[in-house]
Structures are given as C-alpha cells and as structure tokens.
Known about the structure:
Order of helices and strands: HHHHEEEEEEEEEEEHHHEEEEE
Helix content: 10-25%
Structural class: mainly beta
Amino acid sequence: xxxxxxxxxxxxxxxxxLPLISAAQQIDSTTSIDGRVNVINTAVPFLRISPDxxxxxxxxxxxxxxPDANSIYWNLSKIPFATQPGALSVTYTPWLTQLVNDVYxxxxxxxxxxxxxxxxxxxxxxFSLGNVQFYDFRGMDQGQFHPREFAVDAGYARKLSDHWGxxxxxxxxxxNLASGYNPDNGSTYKAGQxxxxxxxxxxxxxxxxxxxxxxxxxxxxxxxxxxxxxxxTNGAAQKNFLPTNLGIGGAYTTQPDEYNKxxxxxxxxxxxxxxxxxxxxxxxxxxxxxVVEGIFKSFGDAPGGLKEELEExxxxxxxxxxxxxxxxxxxxxxxxxKYKGDRQYFTAGLGxxxxxxxxxxxxLVPSGSGIQRNPLSNTLRFSLLFDFGKKQ
Length: 392
C-alpha cells in the first residue's frame, strides 16, 4: 500500500471512529434539508454491507425474496419455508479495489431445518482493512496496524402457520480499528465490542393456476442490530450507536410453466438512529441518548421535518429470472438521497445451479452525482452455495 493510499484509508478510519463529529461539521445552521448534507453515521457500518452476491445483484434487496443460506442477514424468519432442509453459503467481496488490493469482506452463512416448523442458522462476517500505515496529524510515522472487524450470529426461526414465520437472531460484534493507537488528542483507542439482536417476520402465499403455473406473494420485515452502544476509547461518554435498521420488503414471483420463473422485489430501509446535532455543542446531549430512546426519536427528530425524515429512507428494486432452476439473470437499482449519503447504483448478476452446488456473481455500477463514492464501484463479487439433505 502506498503512503497516499494509506492516508486515504486512515482518513476513512477516522471518520468511522468519530462519526458524530464528522456529521456535525457537515451541518450548517439552516433548518431546511435543501442544500444541506446531514448524513447519519454509526459505528461498525460493515454490518449494513450486503454479504451475498444474489441480493447484491438485486440492488441489495433481500427481505422478501425466496429463502436461501444468507437469510440470516436479511430476514431469518424465511428459512422454515426453504425448499432445502439445509444450506451453506461462502461469499467474498473485495472492497475499495480502485485504491488497495488487501481490503475485503468475507461471509459464511448457513441454516438447518430441525423439523417442519423450526429452523436454526448461524453466520460469521469478517471485514479486513488490510495493513494500514498510521500517521499522526503532523505526518509522523506511527507504525503499521491491521484493522479488522467481525460479527458472529446465531438465530432461531419458527413457522407460526403455513404462511407466517418469525425469527430471532443474536449477534456478537468485535471492531478493532486502532487498538493501542495514541493520537495527539491524548485518547487511547481500544477495540469496540457490542451485543445486538434482530427480530424478523415473513409472510408468503402461493396461488396455483389451472395450467400448472403459479403466483407467489411474499412480505418481509426486520428490525436489525438493536444493541448496546459501542466505544473505541476509555471515555465512557463517547459511545456510538450501532446501525439499528428497520427494513420492509415485498416480492412477487410468477411461474408461467415449469421452466420459467421471474421475481420482482422492493425493499425500503431506514436507520433507527437519531439525527446528529446541528453543531458540536449538542454532542454531549447526543451521547446521552439511550438506545431505545434513540429508536423512537429517529422517526421525528430530523431538523428538516417530515421532508428530511423521508430523505432517510433508501429503496432497493430488483428483478430475478430463473430458467429451469439452473440459470438465473438478475438486475437491480439502489437509491439513497444525496443529502443522506448519495449512494446510487445499478447492479447486475448471474446465478448457476447444478444439483446441490450453486454459484452467484454480482457487479455494481455507480450512478447519479455520487458516481465515484461507492467502495464497490465496478467490483465483481461472488458466492458459493451448497445445499444438503433432502426435504421430507
């Protein structure tokens, strides 16, 4: 890694460590969202990175599509409805490929159906920032470090009826971005740790046609990453919110015959995190906000009122076509307001399946005014999938 690239990653790291200060500096004294950037930053943002290539090709939509080995990330309550009694997925996602070649996200996820109504699942997500050369604010060499983060998930899902399911997930989060580093401000950074949970629900219903075709409607919702705040210093007051999120999604699948199947899906997501204060004077009160209080405040605390609250909602649209359950073509689009992060991109991908083995690819093409700002720009990521067992 060159010195310039190391500084780039280091600056990104500083923003991750001090999200509230960064956000506060971006906000001016106006009360309207027009012309003002007001990004909601959180700790451990890697928890909101799509970990699988299938949903990655659908514009990062996954709440209501058919269940697979990665459902623990999107909506655990889907897995009792899976057509296979068990599955495993391994995904590799390069990160910031236009700057460095040693930053990546790796994910291993899987599930096992215990019986007709109960299922369990687990996953491990590991985010490596490679080897980073640290410099202080005077440009003095502070040595190398290997920032890394991971999350371990375990979950249980159950059918409540033939059409309705419920899932609960527990998560341990470890984030070691600069442990032991001593900047000029006198702070000593440490590894952050947190425990969080998800609650999800899923509804699906299929109508069979007289000609052998079918139509399936599905609905999914999930509240994810509800947990204690995380700190990277010994100062008890400086604890940052996890990326608690509310997601609602729907999907419609039509299968005109035994060979062709097409799915349309839409996801809406909103961070359940308070809007940052207008200036640094409000940071102390912001740090005092509790997790539960912050969730409720997130629905009505935007300085720009209802208009700004609506700007905080992102949407993902995706289309998936399968031929004979052997070959899939996917496409999608993701949109985020230019005032809340400005991530806008198109996605595309392919899927292959042979017996119990599958392979998914996805590719991201940035669009809009933030065309150069996505770390996955023009990046190919892939997932390996393995089904095991036979449905009784």
